[in-house]
Design goal:
This protein is α/β, with parallel strands linked by helices. It is 43% helix and 19% strand. It is built from 5 helices and 5 strands, in the order βαβαβαβαβα. It has a 5-stranded parallel β-sheet, with helices on both faces. Helix 3 links the parallel strand 3 and strand 4. Helix 2 packs parallel to helix 3 and helix 3 runs parallel beside helix 4. The protein is globular and about 35 Å long.
Amino acid sequence: MLGQKDDGTAYRVLIIDDSLFVAKQLTQILKSEGFDIAGTASDGQTGLEMYKELYPNVDLVTLDVTMPKLDGVASLEKIMEFDPDATVVMISALGKEDIVKKSLLLGAKNYVVKPLDRQKVLERVVQALNK
């Protein structure tokens, strides 16, 4: 199972996305491989607060680029300020390459472009966890 560490425990993921559909899709894809969903938030501000509450029991964050209250890049900056070792994978719509590049410079470990492809999501998440 891709979602399990060497010791057999599950990687814990926080999903931050304002699209219920995308959050549900990510949950299903990740759970199918044994990942544990630590929580979901529908905007960057709530996601940041949840990360701080769950810390250090979060192995990975999936973070949507475009969201209300606090967008993905601002949210990423605040998560990285709080925890420089955070593992974040950005979820982006097509045509947002400049934002994705900025996110990677700010510390995101990887990105996935929507529409979500199961194989790509798993591949990028695993790559990010192994960086």
